[in-house]
Amino acid sequence: MSTAQGARARARIEVTAAIKDEARRQLAAEGAARLSLRAVARELGMVSSALYRYFPSRDDLLTALIIDAYDSLGESAEAAHETAAPPFERWISVCEAVRGWALDHPHEYALIYGSPVPGYTAPDATVPAAARVGLLLIGIARDAHQGRALGRPALADDLRPEAERLAADLAPDLPPEVVTALVASWAQLYGLVGFELFGQFNRVVEDREAFFRHAVGQLAQGVGLVPGPR
Fold this sequence. Notes:
By secondary structure, the chain is mainly α. Helices cover 69% and strands 0% of the residues. It has helices at residues 3-30, 37-44, 48-51, 58-81, 87-104, 106-113, 127-130, 132-146, 160-170, 176-197, 208-223.
């Protein structure tokens, strides 16, 4: 790569980062539904046609922000995953990292787990980043299962066909009962975080850190993970 090409590449990276930073500022101030390429360009002192060379549409910019948010959340969860060895403690650490990231990045959390943006449908390109936390939780259950330290949750007979389909799609090496509990726990984890972040726990839960740790511990046991000795 020539010196000129390298300079252009660096400039593109810097301008792309500036566009995303301004878009995140607008998310915090106005919400995702009101994100506007023209407004971003105006705040950066760019003409709209120049910005379109980086992001051809609002949806392209939203997709980039969504992938960045999922990746940032995933990186936080993965870092926490490495700090605890027993499966039960790893589960707690990952869940606490999700909560911590959400509290530190409330507007980005709202972008990926809040109300859908009218007129926007997330493309398949967002799936790998979105799956990072879920794959960590599956991996924790898999490690416990391989170590013969994973219980088998109860499963209603009428749910077994769906449970077997979920297992085939998500984790064929795990019992369908476990995979069904994992999907439910994944949803409940984000429900707990969302209730705290969006104010539903106001005047209800006071010690939210202790409450959260207890709740995600119950989710872990529901999946079949066993807490170690204290």
